[in-house]
Amino acid sequence: MTLSVEPTRAVRSWYRLPRAVHPAAWWLWALGMAVTASRTTNPVLLAMVLAVVAFVVVNRRGDAPWAFAFRLYVYLGAAVVVMRVLFRVLLGGPQGEHVLLVLPVIPLPEVAAGIQLLGPFTLEELLGGFYDGLRLATMLICVGAANALANPKRMLKGLPSALYEVGAAVVVALSVAPQLAESVLRVKRARRLRGGGQRGMRALHGIIIPVLSDAMDRSLALAAAMDVRGYGRSGDVPTALRRTTGALVVAGLLGVCVGVYGLMDGTTRAFGVPLLLAGLVVAGTGFLLGGRNVTKSAYRPDRWRAADVVVAACGIAAAAVLYLTSSVDAANLYPSLSPLRWPQLAPLPASGVLVGLLPAWIAPPPPSTAEAHR
Amino acid sequence: MIEFQGVTVTYPGADRATLSAVDLTVDEGELCLVAGKTGAGKSTLLGAVNGLVPHFTGGRLAGRVVVAGLDTRDHKPRDFAAVVGVVGQDPLAGFVTDTVEEELAYVMEQLAVPPDVMRKRVEETLDLLGIAELRHRPLRTLSGGQQQRVAIGSVLTAHPRVLVLDEPTSALDPTAAEDVLAAITRLVHDLGVTVLVAEHRMERVAHFADRMLYLTGDGSVVSGTPREVMAVSEVAPPVVELGRLAGWSPLPLSVRDARRVAHGLRDRLAGLARPASAPSTADPALTARGVVVRYGTLVAVRGLDLDLAPGRIVAVMGRNGSGKSSLLWALQGSGPRQAGAVSVGGADPADLKPRVARGLVGLVPQTPTDLLYLDTVRAECAQADQESHSEPGTCRALLDRLAPGIPDERHPRDLSEGQRLALVLAVQLAAAPRIVLLDEPTRGLDYEAKRHLAAILAELTREGRAVVVSTHDVEFVADVADRVVVLAEGEIVADGPTADVVVSSPAFAPQVAKVLHPLEWLTVGEVARALEERP
Q1: How close B15 comes to chain A (CA, Å)?
Q2: Do residues B505 and B319 make contact, with C-beta atoms less than 8 angstroms apart?
Q3: Distances (CA, A) of B444 to B166, B306, B417
Q4: Stretch (H or E) spanning A244
Q5: Which of A60, A229, B73, B99 is 20 to 30 Å from A360 by CA-CA measure?
Q6: A341, A335 contact by CB (below 8 A)
Q7: In chain B, which residues have their Cβ closer than 8 Å to the Cβ of A222?
Q8: What is the pLDDT of residue A128?
Q9: What's the alpha-carbon Rg for chain B, to the nearest Å?
């Protein structure tokens, strides 16, 4: 007897099974949203980006510890906005005519001519600072969303094998940092048991020596444990080949970074694209060369499935729409401050931002680890 | 399976070889127990099996070590990954990844095991060690016993033919240690792995062991069946010592063996009264009422009352995480305490400056090295005298009483565990506290060092100090404590004279009590004295 299940339904139910979305997909989506935010200072659009990102995070984050980092990024974003406005108050020159508040000017010596401390504070300054700060904050919060949605260590696992050693070093460093903090606390507490009377260098000495020797012991134990479990068995790759691979990868990635910068910058688009392509080719060669000598395998690697591609595509699409609008009609994206105008919301960029909302439903729900924690 | 041919290991700067001309063979599928005093070279012997000695540790190895046909001269430790699995004392220090499943897969990833085989082996290993429900858990959130089982699993997935375990239970509470040892014996029986284990709870392994290697301390190794070796070994579990005292032959290796031959001894002891310390009538040296310690929503100590009598030793027991350390820190005044009162002669140590508080209550923390930061023993002692405003030389004099013969110029890190503990204790005693708290002092101490510590504690009580020891070591408790307090979830679940509390408890009963049950004898020493008085 054959099973007669409607194929589309089978696919749909399989697609909806809870699983972790590829970390790189979440990062691409989040970076896409960050790029979207970077193309505008329109507070309505930025608020939309924030709402979209927050909604997706709340809908699709797991219950792992890093998932709660998002709140910290929101606080950080708020702090950025406040700082930005405060600096405008403190240093802003005389701009605009809608004076809100007249503060006394603090006279500065001759050397600092051109800088004015305090002085009259205008609505234009307030809004300028607020728009700028909001844009930066939104980009930060987008990065925070990626951190909350994707396990940072799984991300490193996805690195091409040519970068395996770098990934291993970062993973170890990530786990050493909390241990170091723990031992500092422990030793500080223990210092009180000896009276803890010293100040300054002596007290520091009393904390640093035990912490460092502890860290040293731990690192040696870890190195031994990694050694006996076969780490570094790929040592039989010829040194010359290993170095070439490394050089190609690093040079290629640098090229990619500069290329992306050129592309984003908008003013020097001429060298952006060629450099980006060249970088990709060089890095790709490096990865291929390195990958040929793989003597490792990966346990349950994250795979790109349809949902992951869609998630990444949503972020990229949002960025692309904003990119296009900025070259067609930039007025809506950068609301005018002189003369003061209410920010306008055009349908095209708004729909672009809304594309970023789709992963809230399209991405498969995160697996629950709650039962394991019971 | 494992062959040592004329193996001599010398570390740079050492005046004698740690192992000298060792010849031994361990056959396939054997469970081999490695015993010896601290510093006799157990870790060196175990490390030599997969080439960590000398490839990783340095030093000089003469002779040949051949494991499953591979010579450690030609192969590095990483080449042994598929053949020898190594598990250390502190599992957390050896974890590379951060969740259970990834840790189990790590060694297979390094060996390039195909993904489908990996998946299957991870599942099998999870079941074999009974840790399937922990599979997604972060490693740091596991209890000590769970971590150690994951550490064993993380080398088993490579399907090694030899498993080397260096004191795998030394940091665990009795129940967790049982779990780990049960897992090890199951492996030997089910998988036929050759196992080399250094274990201070010898009696748990001895009767399963096919072979015992005893390191005498002068570099030589005695190899034979556990029964043969136990007869000559200086370190022996209480059950073996009881057997020697009673003249049983063959020597019993387990509580079960001993119980079956113990009728005669039980009859002889039946009429004798066990020496019991009279309850103290003196005013308590420390009173604590309603002590609460909490970290956020986690309540470590839940409204606890405790009186400490001068001249008595109280043992605080309970599983890891039951609030023992938090209680000691709260009593000393340096740790957090959210509610309750502690009074030492009318003063609350938490309200005093640390310098004054340590004159009332001294605490030796779980990691004593946290207190040491100078280059030499002399400098540490001088610093301690200065900190406690005592006569120069006080600390050194105390140290000489606790552990005679430690050179002034020695670096504190180069001392043995027992000597380091003595140094920290001397540093704390320099302030002349009337109350001394020790947090897990028996960790890493061998039988002899523990005996020495017991003598030190007895002397402290003779000076009228109140002593509190938190420990997992039931034999040590039976030996030293006048009173036992058992904690669970921050509350006292049992409190009373040692014999009353431990004899009835399956987890906390010392071996002698198990052998002589229903008689309430706790240690070999007590039995020996009673028999001497009335043979």
Answers
A1: 24
A2: no
A3: 12, 28, 7
A4: helix A239-265
A5: B99
A6: yes
A7: 93-94, 96
A8: 87
A9: 24
Å between B360 CA and nearest CA of chain A: 11
Domain count, chain B: 2
- Kindly report, residue by residue over B190-213, the tens digit of the pLDDT: 888 999 999 877 877 887 889 999
Phi then psi for residue B31, to 5 deg, are -100, 120
CB pairs under 8 A between A and B: 159
Residue of B159, B116, B238 whose CA lies nearest to B523: B238
Strand-pair partners of B194: B162
At residue B314, φ and ψ (nearest 5 deg) are -110, 130
- Are B358 and A193 in contact by the 8 Å Cβ rule? The answer is yes
Mean of pLDDT over chain A: 80
Asked whether residue B255 is domain-assigned, the answer is: no
Note the ipTM here.
Answer: 0.84
Say how many residues make up chain B.
Answer: 535
**Which one-letter amino acid corresponds to residue A339?**
P
Query: The tokens of B528 are what?
Result: 């020996």
In the DSSP assignment, the letter for residue B99 is: B
Our count of domains for chain A comes to 1
Cα separation, B466 vs B457, whole angstroms: 10
Residues B38 and B164 in one domain: yes
Contacting residues of A for B54, CB less than 8 Å apart: none
Token pair, residue B272, equals 């004798």
Q: What is the CATH number of the domain that holds B150?
A: 3.40.50.300
* Structure-token match 């940092």, residue found: A177
Give residue A157's domain range.
19-230+240-296+306-373
The pairing of beta strand B491-497 with beta strand B483-488: antiparallel
Higher-confidence residue of A292 and B421: namely: B421
Separation in Å, CA B46 to CA A325, B7, B60, B198, B225 = 69, 13, 15, 8, 19
Domain match, B331 and B226 both: no
Nearest to B370 among A190, A298, A369 (CB): A190
* A274, B9, B51 from A22: Cα distances, Å: 29, 50, 40
Q: Residues of B with CB below 8 A from A194's CB?
A: 358, 371, 384, 387, 427-428
User: Using alpha carbons only, how large is chain A's radius of gyration in Å?
Assistant: 26
Residue type, A314: C
B183 and B35, same structural domain?
yes
Residues from chain B contacting residue A298 (CB–CB below 8 Å): 109, 115
β-bridge mates for residue B25, sequence order: B3
The beta-carbon neighbor of A228 closest among B50, B93, B335 is: B50
Task: Kindly report whether the peptide bond that precedes residue A339 is cis, defined as omega within 30 degrees of 0.
Answer: yes
pLDDT tens digit sequence for B38-70: 778 888 999 999 888 888 888 899 999 999 999
**Is the distance from CB of A103 to CB of A120 less than 8 angstroms?**
yes
C-alpha distances in Å from residue B180, one per residue of B129, B172, B199: 9, 9, 12
d(CA B344, CA B236): 41
pLDDT number for residue A354: 93
Q: Give the pLDDT score at B255.
A: 87
User: Tell me, what DSSP letter sits at residue A343?
Assistant: P
Residue B214: the pLDDT is: 92
Given A196, A207, A232, which is nearest B354 (Cβ)? A196
CA pair distance B252, B11, nearest whole angstrom? 38
Q: How many secondary structure helices (H) and strands (E) does chain B include?
A: 22, 19
A-chain CB neighbours of B94 within 8 Å are 221-222, 224-225
Q: Helix (H, G, I), strand (E, B), or coil: what is residue B302?
A: strand
Cα–Cα distance for residue pair B331/B337, rounded to 1 Å: 9
Which residue out of B108, B373, B395, B437 would a mutagenesis test of the A interface target, given it has the greatest number of A Cβ atoms within 10 Å? Answer: B373
